[in-house]
Specification:
Layout lengths: L2 H42 L10 H63 L2 H24 L5 H31 L13 H28 L1
Helix pairs in contact: 1-2, 3-4, 3-5, 4-5
Length: 221
């Protein structure tokens, strides 16, 4: 699951928890109202002996008893629903915490893996040393008494390529400086393995081309 999907899921769970809280509060208010109605209805039922009640009173009492029974059933139903909502709320809270924890742990793991697998400062230094050696070798080729214009032109091209590599390394060093104060959630926007791999491939390509130049110079000498 991507980070955006996790954030969307967290927002969804938080909104659902809010709705559950609102439903629970509404049910509590409704239960309170019904209990108050029941108390009023019970107060209206006289405690006289059944034989002394008039027919009209008996009918009234029957209606009150039926209404009380319905109110009690409704209260039980609301309490059951409230219990379910509370359990659902607890479940959603646990799921939300699990997602947040997993998201946090995955972010930490990604950054730690990147730091452990790619010691960036050492790698940059190594790449700089390699470029410096390649530059020195090409300068040596250029100072040899070789009149082959084609090889000199290729050496000039190599110089340009090395300048490009040096520029890329400079950019990488700047990104390394920017990397440390940035939060884990944004780290992938500033330094990735792909950048290092691309730079290494360019250096390898330059090494092969310099090796070819060296072989050609050896044949001419």
């Amino acid at each position: 699951m991507t980070e955006d999907a996790l954030k969307a899921r967290i927002r969804e769970l938080e909104e659902e928890l809010k709705r559950k809280d609102e439903e629970t509060n509404v049910n509590l208010d409704r239960i309170g109202e019904l209990e108050e109605i029941i108390m009023r209805l019970e107060a209206l039922i006289p405690e006289e002996d059944e034989k002394k009640k008039s027919r009209k009173r008996k009918v009234w009492d029957s209606k009150l008893a039926i209404e009380l029974d319905e109110k009690n059933k409704l209260i039980r139903k609301l309490k059951d629903e409230m219990g379910f909502l509370r359990k659902e709320k607890i479940r959603l809270q646990r799921e939300l915490e699990k997602i947040k924890s997993a998201n946090k742990d995955s972010s930490v793991i990604r950054v730690e893996d990147l730091r452990s697998e790619l010691p960036l400062n050492d790698l940059v230094k190594e790449l700089q040393d390699t470029v410096s050696k390649q530059r020195s070798l090409i300068n040596k080729f250029k100072t040899n008494k070789v009149d082959n214009k084609d090889i000199l032109e290729k050496s000039r091209v190599k110089d340009e390529e090395i300048e490009i590599l040096k520029s890329e390394i400079s950019q990488l060093k700047q990104k390394l400086k920017d990397f440390s104060p940035i939060s884990n959630d944004k780290s992938d926007d500033f330094i990735t393995k792909k950048l290092i791999e691309d730079l290494q491939q360019e250096l390898n390509k330059t090494k092969r081309q310099v090796s070819d130049l060296k072989q050609k110079l050896a044949k001419l000498s």
